[in-house]
Amino acid sequence: MQKLLIVLLIGLLASSALAQDTPLLPDPLSPGDHSLSLTMGEQKRSYLVHVPKDYDPKKPSPVVITLHGLAMDGSMMVWFSGLNKKSDEAGFIVVYPSGTGLGPFCSWNAGGFRRKMAEGGADDVAFIGKLLDELSTLVKVDEKRVYACGMSNGGMMCYRLAAELSDRIAAIAPVAGTIAIDDSKPKRPVPVMHFHGSKDNIVPFEMKKSKSPSFIKLKGVEDSIQTWVKLNGCDETPIFETISKDDDEMKVTRKTYGGGRDKAEVVLVVIEEGGHTWPGRQPPVGFIGKSAMNVSANDLMWEFFQKHPMK
Predict the structure, then answer these.
(1) pLDDT, tens digit, for every residue of 92-121?
(2) What one-character-per-residue DSSP string does 13-67 give?
(3) Domains plus CATH for the chain?
(4) What is the C-alpha R_g of the chain?
(5) Full-prediction pTM beyond 0.85?
(6) Based on the number of CB atoms within 10 Å of its own CB, is 246 exposed (0-12), middle (13-18) or buried (19 or more)?
(7) I want to staple 98 with a disulfide (CB 3.0 to 4.6 A). Which of 58, 73, 193, 289 is the partner?
């Protein structure tokens, strides 16, 4: 009897120790807004998730990673982009990660920084990869339909993700952000839809004609587009169309370079007289320029994403 009690006691102690060492499985996310975090080394990184109202946990859902601009964070990008509304309409999950920095003044290590600015940058490609790993434990992710869009510095980060995380990012849609890294070597063709205002005074359309800051090096819009036309093996001659109406205040044109490998496309949407803004959304401050309200970046990029799941 005494031996039996000892065996039972040892079993209980072992079970208790095992329970302490085994992490609890996270609760799955329900429709609505969620504030989450993960740890990268010794650093805590935060991100927001909006799960659409008609989300079905039994069906894989597409995901759109939405990256904020310089001196912003994920919460600011929620209202800046207005993508929650499109998420509910279309049924995709939208994620708003925050870069690194002080308080809400965050940035992405998208490349391009020089001198002191280039030292000690966070590995944001690894952060997005780990975020996707954790997200897949919280919601049912369609791994073939994970996309990235972003504003300014966030758009630059989209290009870096396309180059360095192409095995997980199906397509990208940068807004007012160009290529900042020196070399782009994706593992597969990545479709690109780029939005840019012709009068953007923060990330100018043509960098050669601007006085860019000495601490950062960026490609111009056409250089960025041609880089991905070559990487994706697209036709050199684009299809040109005007997608705004004749009586609209701002003219919006679209150039589509098709014929790429795995049906990849590169699309440039130009907002004539447009500033450093998100098409379809009112700019929060006047000095960043005009925004086109006759087209919606959210509608156009989602239509583009739907055409380009990962092969």
Answers:
(1) 999 999 999 998 999 999 997 665 555 568
(2) HHHHHHHHHSPPPPPPPPSEEEEEEEEETTEEEEEEEEE-TT--TTS-EEEEEEE
(3) 26-307 (3.40.50.1820)
(4) 22
(5) yes
(6) exposed
(7) 73
